[in-house]
Amino acid sequence: MSDHDPFNEPETAHVRARKLMTEEFFWDCVDEQAPFGSDEGSDAYYEWRDWREENPDQPLTACLDWILDGQSEQYDASLHSDERIAQDLADPSSAFLADHWDIDTLDITILATSLGQLLDEGTIDADAKPLAIVAIERQLRRSSDPRRQQILNAARRVVDNA
Questions:
Q1: Which residue from 154, 141, 148, 139 is spatially nearest to 26, judged by alpha carbons?
Q2: Are the CB atoms for 135 and 111 separated by under 8 Å?
Q3: Which of 85, 107, 108, 132 has its CA 20 to 30 A from that of 41?
Q4: pTM of the predicted model, to two decimals?
Q5: Predicted confidence (pLDDT) per residue in 17-55, tens digit
Q6: Using an 8 Å Cβ cutoff, are 120 and 133 in contact?
């Protein structure tokens, strides 16, 4: 994979990513609320690139399953139900994969990895989109911040159209 920096040099990102990710926050690598602005989002993108270098013929779902410790089938819509979110907020140690991840870090990692494929390859594999949507929906339902919701809704639009 070529060595490029899509955040400081957006022209190095795939043209389709540039067309879909029109909001400035997608390209902001220091805004904590932006997909790649937090340490977790930035790390996830560069980990994706390393993973892709080692696994050039594997689908994005293989990378996401690696992140999800082989439990990607359980990372589903049940995780963003009101009941599950209330339970996870009340007892974070019982959340999905709590022994490996906190909720926010896991969701940010899944989303940034998925968007990372778009940055580099101009697509998000169709089989991976449901996982990205779980991350977005879980974050949307946990956030009351209007700006964070704007970012997540834009991310949802991008994932849907990628």
A1: 154
A2: yes
A3: 85
A4: 0.94
A5: 999 999 999 999 889 999 999 999 999 999 999 999 999
A6: no
